[in-house]
Amino acid sequence: xxxxxxxxxxxxxxxxxxxxxxxxxxxxxxxxxxxxxxxxxxxxxxxxxxxxxxxxxxxxxxxxxxxxxxxxxxxxxxxxxxxxxxxxxxxxxxxxxxxxxxxxxxxxxxxxxxxxxxxxxxxxxxxxxxxxxxxxxxxxxxxxxxxxxxxxxxxxxxxxxxxxxxxxxxxxxxxxxxxxxxxxxxxxxxxxxxxxxxxxxxxxxxxxxxxxxxxxxxxxxxxxxxxxxxxxxxxxxxxxxxxxxxxxxxxxxxxxxxxxxxxxxxxxxxxxxxxxxxxxxxxxxxxxxxxxxxxxxxxxxxxxxxxxxxxxxxxxxxxxxxx
Length: 323
Prior knowledge:
Order of helices and strands: HEEEEEEEEHEHEEEEEEEHHH
Number of helices: 6
Low-confidence stretches: 1-48
Number of strands: 16
Mean pLDDT: 84
Helix content: 10-25%
Strand content: 25-35%
Distance between the termini: 87 Å
Largest sheet: 6 strands, antiparallel, barrel
């Protein structure tokens, strides 16, 4: 008795073996094509749905990573291929969310050497970069458990870098949220636009959870964790909170969760942060940013050829007009 594939005849056994193999190739090709079509359909459907963290219309706009204050914001990349947002608050001190340093797979903190911060990042290019030397986590933060407002209120991390990149890209100042600081600004790197910074100008602090977590309506998605929420005050940009989560609802709409600067400002100042911001190198002057903001407000663009000090003063007036 002959087994299948060993038939004798004028065509020979090799023909049937080849024919059988060809049928399997066609089958798998069709299967792969159907799978690809299903993936395309799924992605297309998902793209039609709002991203979690976008509250109503998507109000984020691209901003120039080469100009201050956006130059002081960057991506904190890890060895797993994921990233969060961070902001410089001193010569070599960076601020982000604590959960960005937690490895869910190993259920432990990521080694400092596996973390890399790129400031002023835009489509593969950046103004400065540095690896992480050490970090300090909010004392009440615990990784691996259920994430809620009780954990979120401690979700901050101070990250010391191995290089003084703040002297190049600049840094934000710090201040506690004032009673009148309800209209704020937020910028970071989201999952849908991972290669350029976007900003929501302005958004608002709308409340506070019983645990002390600030609630805001700024558009912020995955990847924006650790991004600065800031105001213009006393001649500079100052962080009043960092975005850490999307949680809670108000009238059916999801709200963002943020850790107020008051929670960590003393630790930050002891660690090398500055209460007042610094605009970095001369070429960081916000010339394009001022024109962009003026255009959005329907105002005439600032004159060209102004000094760096004039550019910063103009930025201040424009941001205060938005806040």
